[in-house]
Amino acid sequence: MPHVNPAIYVEADSSYELEYVEVIHRHHKRTPYASNTFPREGYSWDCDDEGLFLGGKPIDPCGNLSASTYWRVDISPSNPLAPTGFNGTCQFPQITREGLDDSHQHGIDLRDVYGGILGFLPDSCDRNLVSYRVTNNVITSQVASMVIAGMYPERAGQNSPLLIQPASIDSLEPLYSCPAASTLFESYGPGPSSPDWIEHLTASADLYGRLDALSGVDPTSDDWHKSWDHYFDNLSSRLCHQKPLPCNINNPEDCVSMEEAEKVFRLGEYEYSFIYRDSPQSLGASVGSYGIWVAELAQNLRCAMGDESTSPSEPSEKVRYRHNIAHDGSISRLLSILQVDRMVWPGMGAEIVFELYRKDGCYFLRVLWGGQVMTSSNPSLARLDLVPVANILDYFDGLVGIGARKIPKLCQR
């Protein structure tokens, strides 16, 4: 999806001075999740053109040097078992070579705008001024390694810390427990308790039947049939990598047509719009499940303005650029909380940017979605183009509380 880049970026009025930037975006192109692959796939998927480096080495203090090790899939001729899903040398999921290249270009584009055009980013990657954060899903770290090298070429091949929260309380993915939000999502979205959702699935039963018969997916599988998410990921990941749509392994002439794939994509778009924007319960569900990250954003804005009175820990006022690499569920919840006027399923690299400006001693916020100023359907937000930051903070605080103090109670309801 579009993101900030020199070709589309529109500078704010020169009377406004940029003080702080926070970026959050979805990871880039990947292979499908293993759970979203068919029981048997008709062709292999290889990733021999990249390495997923895993290892460790002593730091602070330094010790023995380590080898740069990466995974290489090995299929033993003595192992009689066949893997489910795709054969080949990829992990499912992993960021593909195309995704790595897109990640690198994303970093270049951000550097060219916030470094080249605006002169805002520091010339070198000073960790006191610039930070990168990832989720507990390793694919976001794969993206980060390329984004950083794109933004700061001198960091290529160098050690670069990535901030990460413990899995049990990770607010970026999110992974923290919020039973009330989960129950609310299930009450109107994927699950057995929503008549509207069941009606939606019933209306698309013929397409399910067609794809189940072709793919070998069990028609009674709840995971595959509670929403169109699995088929969406399976088909879209192929097309993103110029791979053919799947065929029946027992009848190679019987293939998913582009028309059928587009039906799946339309159904998936409808589902995401309904889950995160159209349903009256969507805001409450998103606030509960993503409110902690929103509170962290609010605190970062306050620190950038020099307001440390609400900070529960040591201030980080020096940080002027924060970069978060997340997932479609992260971006969707944030769009829901911001009440974006037109919801879409966030594609690979989908990006939201928060720019904090100062003018005449006052602070203003601009929010970019897909590289353009975001418009909210909430009248208190409306067009998020240099609005007084107090308006945004009041809105966030009203939903989640300063320091997310409302979230524990909201999640227990």
TrEMBL record:
<protein>
    <submittedName>
        <fullName>Phosphoglycerate mutase-like protein</fullName>
    </submittedName>
</protein>
<dbReference type="InterPro" id="IPR029033">
    <property type="entry name" value="His_PPase_superfam"/>
</dbReference>
<comment type="similarity">
    <text>Belongs to the histidine acid phosphatase family.</text>
</comment>
<dbReference type="GO" id="GO:0016791">
    <property type="term" value="F:phosphatase activity"/>
</dbReference>
<dbReference type="InterPro" id="IPR050645">
    <property type="entry name" value="Histidine_acid_phosphatase"/>
</dbReference>
<dbReference type="Pfam" id="PF00328">
    <property type="entry name" value="His_Phos_2"/>
</dbReference>
<dbReference type="InterPro" id="IPR000560">
    <property type="entry name" value="His_Pase_clade-2"/>
</dbReference>
